[in-house]
Amino acid sequence: MELLEDKMRVWLESAKFVKPASGVYVLYNRSKEPIYIGETDNLEETFTKYVDTNFEGNECKQKTQSYQRVFLENPKEFQTKLIEDFKNETGKMPSCNSEIQLETH
Predict the structure, then answer these.
(1) Of 16, 36, 68, 73, which has the fewest beta carbons less than 10 angstroms from its beta carbon?
(2) pLDDT tens digit string along 1-36?
């Protein structure tokens, strides 16, 4: 289930070569199920940190096998919309997102 128009990319191969721009990203597990919908002001910085720290020990995000990303000026609004659309379509949140993260991230 791909959520963005961007092509699906293999996680480690290209994660460090993303532009330092704001955007929204979706992490997928081996079954190509969305496990996390995130937003950042700097995709390069966020992805480099994820790669260098192996998701800071986050076992849920460590299941990442591929990702999609889109560059946007207002990533927070689009992230919220994507999560709401996913929730409406599937009846649940992506497994690594939670209501608390959505409100405080």
Answers:
(1) 73
(2) 889 999 999 998 788 789 999 999 999 999 999 999
pTM (predicted TM-score): 0.90
- CA 9 from centroid of its chain's CA atoms: 12
Report the C-alpha gap between 22 and 33 in whole angstroms. 23
Q: Which of 95, 98, 99, 97 is closest to 30 using CA atoms? A: 95
Distance (Å, whole) CA 98 – CA 77: 17
The kind and range of the H/E element at 9 are: strand 9-10
Report whether 96 contacts 28 (CB < 8 A): no
Cβ(97)–Cβ(39) under 8 Å? no
pLDDT of residue 51: 94
Residue 75, C-beta contacts closer than 8 angstroms, at least 6 positions apart: 22, 23, 24, 39, 40, 41
Averaged over 42-55, what is the pLDDT?
95
